[in-house]
Amino acid sequence: MFKHEKMLFRPVEIEKPNPQYAALLQEQLGGANGELKAALQYMSQSFRIKDPDIKDLFLDIAAEELSHLEMIAQTINLLNGHDVDASSVPAGEIQTHVQLGLNPGLINASGYSFTGDYVTVTGDLCADLLANIASEQRAKVVYEYLHRQIDDKKVRATIDFLLEREEAHNALFREAFNKVQNTGSNRDYGTTLAAHMYFSMSEPEGNAFTTKEVNAPSFK
């Protein structure tokens, strides 16, 4: 069950409209590494989790990602201003000006529709946690790119906050992985010598099969 609170997770503001940047920000609304993808991925993965604490973690983060989605949508609204004008978006997504009446859409910065194919669910907790760690890392990268391309201090404050929350989620998923890393697919494999060997294919001819033992690091 979800309850809608009539307030944003964190207030958002802008210094002035910027439709071109609104088009860029669409990436974090309907893109492959955006907030909707994260919310749906963590929620979908939670359905088969038996550990109650980890299940709650997935659902709590999924709910927060939905609140991030709301923050991004409101920021896009403010950046788009009040007048439809496709010429103000010379590159990237123009659908909001010609199809959606400036409403933030479930599309990425290039105008492609959100798809469930972005969502990764395997039913294996270790695999799903690793996917989530990677998802949070990729989301951080996109926010870092977005940060570099806006001078608006108020928009930057929102981007910085969301970036820091992605880092917090990343740390929480790493902590959960430490708890279960010897279960599931991690338990079933990695039991033979071959699972811990690296074959160097970059050596001079004659030494192509030089090997060394490797051990996967734990997340801290």
Textual characterization of the structure:
- This protein is mainly alpha-helical.
- It contains eight helices and two strands.
- The protein has helices spanning 19-25, 27-30, 35-46, 52-80, 95-98, 125-148, 153-180, 184-188, and strands at 197-199, 211-213.
- Helix 3 runs antiparallel to helix 4 (52-80) and helix 6 packs antiparallel against helix 7.
Short description:
The chain is mainly α and 220 residues long. 51% of the residues lie in helices and 3% in strands.
Task: Write the SSE topology.
Elements: H1 19-25, H2 27-30, H3 35-46, H4 52-80, H5 95-98, H6 125-148, H7 153-180, H8 184-188, E1 197-199, E2 211-213
Helix pairs in contact: 1-4, 3-4, 3-6, 4-7, 6-7
